[in-house]
Amino acid sequence: MERVFNFSAGPAMIAQSVLEKAQNELVSYADKGMSVMEMSHRSSMYVDIFNETKALLKELMNVPDDYEILFMQGGATLQFSGVPLNLMVNGKADYVDSGNFAHLAAEEAKRYGEVNIVASSREDNYTYVPAIDQIRWNADADYAYITTNNTIYGTRYTAIPDTGAIPLVADASSNILSEELDVTKFGVIFAGAQKNIDPAGLCIMIIRKDLMGKQNALCPKLMNWALQSKNDSMLNTPNTYGIYMAKLGFEWLKDLGGVPAIYQQNVYKANLLYDFIDNSALFTAPARKDCRSLMNVTFVTGDADKDAAFVKFAAANGLVNLKGHRSVGGMRASIYNAMPVEGVQKLIEVMKAFEKENR
Are 175 and 295 in contact (CB under 8 A)? Predict the structure, then answer.
């Protein structure tokens, strides 16, 4: 069967060449005579894979030596608890409530200490990211927390806030490796892998080393960053196959020219789609123009029945998972790194055809 264009927000599309390489190596990796799924995480053959994966991510994101890279389990959501358990030394933190996952992270952090919502777009249905130059961070906060891309509502930070001496923590799940991030601006960056990296289950963490070792006494050992660092992310059996798949994805991205090259492609894809929507007689984009996401393009017709009809029409034309999140409805085209330009062009063609029939 011919592959469809999968616009899912995650688990998301993986580059076909990555899938084919994984397929070719599934039964026997290199000359090892076994699948990566069968390898002991303590074996030299697997440790080589692990180290290559770590080195590739460090290269792709220009991670300085004073930062640690961890490959954790539980996806990004586990770190909604992991962040306060490891950083909330004085029991206070600042959060920007810019979307559903930012809100959930703040609510979880309230279990461990005082959370100050320093800015929010919740009352405006998260159609924008609060202006960073108007945020007043609290000097006694243990950390400041942002979510760099709003997957559900289709917004993003176009600039990273300067929090001074307060460590900045970022959930970058839905735009990691899609555009360049200056790692030195952050104390912690974490991301679920199932959007721009590999299958679900893995969480990538980049942590400034001086921030480790401050964990709450009740922090579970598997969520203890310092302990995980000491054991090279192998305090227990890690997501071995997920890490291997991340390696393949990192190799693919490096071969394309790295993050700068994919960013140019992502801007091109997003502009194609937004330009069509902005000139459409049927479709509109709710997200404010100055903070539109490059990864998640949300759009509506203004009629729930027409929205549902379009999703069905698109699926019949090989474009799947365009239904918007259940909390907002409408449509959402997630155009992560692995979505080729051809997929966006096909989507526009199908939108034009639907518009012609439904004016």
Answer: yes
Q: In terms of domains, do 56 and 134 share one?
A: yes
> Looking at the 3D structure of the chain, how many domains does it have?
2
CA 56, CA 65: separation in Å to the nearest integer?
14
Q: Are residues 313 and 194 in the same domain?
A: no
Give the whole-angstrom CA distance, residue 6 versus residue 137.
40
Residue 5 counted as domain residue? no
Parallel/antiparallel/unpaired status of strands 144-147 and 92-97: parallel
pLDDT tens, residue by residue, 198-227: 899 999 999 999 999 999 999 999 999 999
Give dist(CA 308, CA 331) in Å, integer. Answer: 9
Q: Is residue 8 part of a domain?
A: no
Global confidence as pTM: 0.96
pLDDT digits (tens, 9 = 90+) for 227-264: 999 999 999 999 999 999 999 999 999 999 999 999 99
Residue in the block written with tokens 């929205």: 307
Residue 7 counted as domain residue: no
Q: 147: which strand partners?
A: 171
Do 220 and 82 meet the contact criterion of CB atoms below 8 Å apart? no
Residues 242 and 266 in one domain: no
Rounded to whole angstroms, the Cα distance separating 237 from 240 reads 8
CA dist., res. 354 & res. 310, Å (int): 7
3-state secondary structure 258-288: HHHHHHHHHHHHHHHHHHHHHCCCCCECCCC
Residue range(s) defining the domain that contains residue 349: 258-357
Last residue of a domain, one of 255, 279, 306: 255
Residues 6+ apart with CB under 8 A from 333: 7, 273, 296, 297, 299, 322, 344, 347
CATH code, domain carrying 339? 3.90.1150.10
Q: Does 270 lie in the same domain as 251?
A: no
Q: Where are the alpha helices (DSSP H) in 198-340?
A: 225-230, 240-256, 258-278, 304-316
Tokens read off for 141 = 């906060």
Task: Determine contact, residues 108/99, Cβ cutoff 8 Å.
Answer: no
Query: Do 21 and 150 share a domain, yes or no?
Result: yes
